[in-house]
Amino acid sequence: MRALVTGATGFIGRALVARLGEVVVVSRDAARAKQAFPQAETFAWDPMREPLPAAALRDVEVVFHLAGDSVAEGRWTAEKKRRIRESRTLGTANLVRGIEASTARPRVLVSASAVGYYGSRGDEVLEETSSPGHDFLADVCVEWEQSAAAGEKLGVRVANPRTGIVLGRGGGALSKMLLPFKLGAGGRLGSGRQWMPWIHLADLVGIFLHAATSDQVRGAINGVAPNPVTNIEFTKTLARALHRPAIMPAPEFALKLAIGEFAEVLLGSQRVVPRVAEQTGYRFQFPTLEGALGEILGAAT
User: Taking a C-beta distance cutoff of 8 angstroms, is the pair 117, 224 a contact?
Assistant: First the structure.
């Protein structure tokens, strides 16, 4: 399978490229991408300014679209929120424009989305058919998926993995949590009662590949493990895995003071389950948090 990947130098993108065979990487910095992936064919592309170059799509069967401004990096100023939105909506629209202009279109577009689609919903169990939320990230995800869905009119099957909190070595959410926990300064966020839709990096990559190869997958597919946990359960499990106490809770007001509006994401509750992945035959390598953390941290829990 010859696949094109955007956002390849990111945490998820690097793991995905490692699982692929023949790869085309498009990036704003093609030289940096070539250095990172010497085995790949590379093309320069600015997703905010131009359609995806037609030459990059030569003989490509699947496009994996992961590019987008980081939600977790930097304070959410008006300018930051504009970049978050436009990097996903305009960037995806320009990718689809490139596919439309190409004479050799891919069979499948796997375009990332996020569980932010659902907003904060307390204890409600959220499946792919659940309605969207009404906050900033939910609005962005709705527009993001709509931009990708335009590919369907071109005869391209479109899948949207709604990614949860990704756990893995060398990056992602866990890398930011480890130091305070190792120092014994970890603890729950806010009340700790909010649900955390987590997933091991290997399973998220597996769901991306499953979405690419399974004709049954069309539209949303939740990129989360089948056993979501509350924040306090996550905190206790991580502390046990590291053999450290977790006695330093982060109060809601302190989080909002420290990181502003993004604190609402950390305090929001999303009890998301991977119904489509399970119904279409995906088998999770790490269905439980204990097993996932044990593999990542290199110790049994």
Answer: no
Cβ contacts of 143 within 8 Å, gap of 6 or more: 85, 88, 89
pLDDT tens string 264-292: 888 899 999 999 999 999 999 999 999 99
Q: How far is Cα of residue 20 from the mean position of the Cα atoms in its chain?
A: 18
CA-CA-CA-CA dihedral for 198, 201, 202, 206, to nearest 10: 80
Of 161, 147, 157, 115, the C-alpha closest to 12 is 161
- What is the amino acid identity at position 112? A
Reported as a single tens digit per residue, the pLDDT across 182-215 is: 877 788 888 999 999 999 999 999 999 999 999 9
Run of H or E residues at 32: helix 30-36
Bridge-based pairing of strands 229-230 and 195-196 is: antiparallel
CB 269 within 8 A of CB 121: yes
Please count the CA atoms within 13 angstroms of the CA of 166 that sit on its side-chain side.
Answer: 24
Nearest residue to 191 (alpha-carbon basis) of 230, 246, 229, 133: 230
Three-class SS of 44-95: ECCCCCCCCCHHHHCCCCEEEECCCCCCCCCCCCHHHHHHHHHHHHHHHHHH
CA 267, CA 95: separation in Å to the nearest integer?
33
Give the model confidence (pLDDT) of 122-181 as tens digits.
Answer: 999 999 999 999 999 999 999 999 999 999 999 999 999 999 999 999 888 888 888 788
